[in-house]
Amino acid sequence: MKLELHKARVFAAVAAMLAAFALSGCDDRQIDSMWQTLKAFFDSVKPDVLLFKGMKPGISTLDDVRRQMGKPETERIFDDGSRRLEYPRGPAGLNTYMVDIGSNGRLVAITQVLTAENFARITIGMSQDEVRQLLGKPGEVAAFRLKKETVWSWKWREGGVEQEAYFNVHFGPDGRVTTTSRSDVMRGH
Fold first, then answer.
1. Which residues have a Cβ under 8 Å from the Cβ of 69 and sit 6 or more positions away?
2. Where are the domains of the chain?
3. How far is 57 from 63, CA to CA, in rounded Å?
4. Hey, what CATH topology would domain 116-184 get?
C-alpha cells in the first residue's frame, strides 16, 4: 500500500513538473537542465531491480551503466584504467552499490557494500578516504567538538533482512578511525 501511494505521489509530481515546463516558456537549455534534474531524481528512487535491469558483467559498458544507473555519487579511476562508481541509495538508504568497471570499459561487478563483512574491514587508523572507498558516502555526518571527533553513519539492514540499524565510524581530529559502533534506528510512537 505504501509503495502504491509513493508511486502515485511521484506520478503527480512528474505531471506537475511537465505542466510547469509547458506553461513556463522555457528555452531548450532550461528544459534540458530540468530534464536532467528530473532524470537524476528518478534514478535515485528507482527500485534496485530497475536500477540494474540489463546490466551484465563482461558485456555491459561504462556508457551502458551510466545510461541505466545515472550519474554516480563518486567515480574513482585507478592506475590500471579500471573504475569504481559509487551509487548510494538514499537519502539515508539501506544500500550503497559499488560498480566496478574493468580497464577494458566493461562491467565487472555490482556489489552492495553495506554489510557486516565490509564493516569488519574497517580498522583503527584508516583514513576517511579509505573508509569512503569501502562503504561509500555516509548517510549522516556529525561533528562532536568537545570530544574532538567526527562520526559517519550508514543505515543498513542488520542481519540482512529486517532490523535497521546504524553502523558508525568515529574519526579523531587527524581524520583517522578511532573506533566503530552500532546504534539503533529510533522510531516514533
1. 43, 51, 52, 55, 85, 87, 99
2. 1-45, 48-112, 116-184
3. 13
4. Beta-lactamase Inhibitory Protein; Chain:B, domain 1 (3.30.1450)
| Residue 127 DSSP one-character state | B
- Identify the residue whose cell numbers are 566493461: 106
- All three cell numbers of 45, joined, read 528512487
**Residue 102: CA atoms inside 13 Å, Cβ hemisphere, count?**
11
Cβ atoms of 142 and 150 closer than 8 Å? yes
Tell me the C-alpha distance between 35 and 81, whole Å: 31
CATH of the domain spanning 48-112: 3.30.1450.10
The cell for 109 is: 561487478
- Which cell is 176 given? 583517522
What does the pLDDT look like over 63-99, one tens digit per residue?
999 998 888 999 999 999 999 999 988 666 788 999 9
